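#structure-requests
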Amino acid sequence: MSASPSDPNTAPLARPTVLSLAIKEKAALYAAYMPFLKNGGMFVPTQKPYKIGDEIYLILALMDDVNKYPIAGKVAWITPPGAHNNKAQGIGVHFPDDDSGTRTRLRIEEILGAALRSSRATHTL
């Protein structure tokens, strides 16, 4: 007897979506960074539909930094198309509570410095 396609024991595992984001300037980093999330996070413009909790593999490039920051995060925020105040459509990726998330959060906060306390509008709040 063969397994049916709907058998959960034979279904292929869903792999996280891979997204790349290259931040070219400090103002863009400020607008995309989500410091209010416990481990930090990043707004990623995308037109693909996601749900809260979806796993995302984000490869982040920060301005002149030669390092790339790979992050296995989760969707914590969704800005739908046609959002209020002309906000860009996309998702907020919550950084994981591990070395990669901590390293990325600390590097972003090092770049932003005092700008973190600014009241300028961002892509999120």
